[in-house]
Design goal:
With about 100 residues, the protein is an all-alpha fold. The chain has a domain at about 20-75. Helix content is about 50%, strand content about 0%.
Length: about 100
């Protein structure tokens, strides 16, 4: 008799996404670390007497690290699994029959 019943979805705690607060905190820490490295590179490029190839390397790091830091800070959490055909969100591009307008 159990063969006709639909198998229930089992959700595990490991499937849950981290909270929004934890995600924002993680991104803030990552941003601050990258900007700290940028500050150190800028100080090394200006204050410490180094040969020009090393100075150019530190200057390049000081120029490009803000871009990398902002992109990383704006990245929102981990991507979830792709939608499957069983999930209700899988085909949201089609307009439902009861929502179609006259003439379409």
């Amino acid at each position: 008799m159990k063969g006709w019943r639909r198998k229930a979805d089992v959700h595990q705690v490991t499937d849950a996404k981290p909270s929004l607060t934890a995600d924002i905190r993680k991104r803030e820490i990552s941003y601050l670390i990258k900007m700290g490295i940028r500050t150190i590179c800028l100080i090394l490029a200006v204050v410490v007497p180094l040969p020009w190839p090393y100075r150019l390397l530190f200057i390049a790091a000081a120029v490009f690290l803000p871009y990398i830091a902002v992109i990383g800070a704006n990245e929102r959490g981990e991507a979830g699994p792709p939608p499957t055909f069983q999930s209700p969100e899988a085909n949201q591009t089609e307009i439902p029959l009861h929502r179609r307008e006259i003439g379409s």
